[in-house]
């Protein structure tokens, strides 16, 4: 539908803005890393004993900084969709992308990590256990055909070996500007897949965790705790990044299967499990009820209703006397000529079809067929404006941060008079929790939330 498409593009534009903004921050952070490297390497400021002290305390900090710099320069923004097997992860991704490309079936669950990227060129690449990447020759005819081609590489029922990653490139406007959507094998599918998933999770910029509400009793808090721990491990390993638990959205899918009289109990059960296993959970802003099935059904119904009414109105318009008079009035020089009757007939057909097309286009333009449901767009704009204000907050943080930076890292004389280690501890080690670490991932999640709003269950 035009509105949904517009919303998605708008969401994508916002993500693009955020990523551009993130790019500016990254440049700053890289500058700081370079400054620090220079500072540490410079014997002018640090004597060998301080250098040794740094080594004992922090290990090979120059190497760490270099690695961290490389990480910062990666400009992709991965949004990981995780959850239990058959909770509806693949169906959910298909829904938000508006493309039925990921296989979603009860019997052939996803067994690889699937990364979806926007690209002009359609392609699939698989990475095997030995990290060898193989490009697969595919073409896109329609969603179903693509899904069938893809199924061979992502599902267990296939004869193919298990791949580590399947990379899918398609023109997907929602994912322009380096956003990646990642479909994952269900938690609990097998110990081996669990480990692979947990290893992969620290790459996530934001999370969407899909819960199977029809089996809410099976929701296991300890699995969530494991996810949280695996994310937090990164903090311990790298000492330089912090996982923000607010960047997770919990989607209670299959809500259509929850009996009405149990809805309240199911919701409070899910909330209590999540509260116990997910630190700083904000029930209002992080938990959504959803039924992919109902949304799909209603989208199809609405679309076909709309198509029906449009085609009726268009039919009436084309059959009106003024229209037919205009359509079929030809001047003599337009009359088709030729040697053979069949040739004249073909030319006449083209001429008439051309006129019908022109009238149809004009009717669509006058009736703004591409702009239906403007009021829905307005609702969405409102949600986006909230996100914008978050960004403004982030900008303020950044400018404050810049002032601090200039004060601390300009290589002026005053820095020599300072106790370097104190300075080091309270600035460098606090980078991970600098305000700048927060806005991007948080805002990305905030962008995804409005995308969900039109999909979320209000009242059944
Ligand atoms: N009733 C119902 N079924 C759903 C819903 N969402 C997905 N399913 C079905 O659940 C099954 C598993 O979905 P899938 O997306 O493959 O789950 P995944 O393993 O988490 O990726 C499929 O048969 C879907 O059609 C929903 O909201 N309601
Ligand atoms: Mg799946």
Automatic annotation (TrEMBL):
Q: Which InterPro entries match?
A: Dynamin_N (IPR045063), P-loop_NTPase (IPR027417)
- Kindly state which keywords UniProt assigns to this record, in alphabetical order: Membrane, Transmembrane, Transmembrane helix
Whether Transmembrane helix counts among this entry's keywords is yes
Q: Which residues cross the membrane?
A: 436-457
Give residue ranges for domain Dynamin N-terminal: 79-217
Q: Which PANTHER family match?
A: MITOGEN-ACTIVATED PROTEIN KINASE KINASE KINASE 7-RELATED, PROTEIN KINASE DOMAIN-CONTAINING PROTEIN
* Name of the protein in its database record: Dynamin N-terminal domain-containing protein
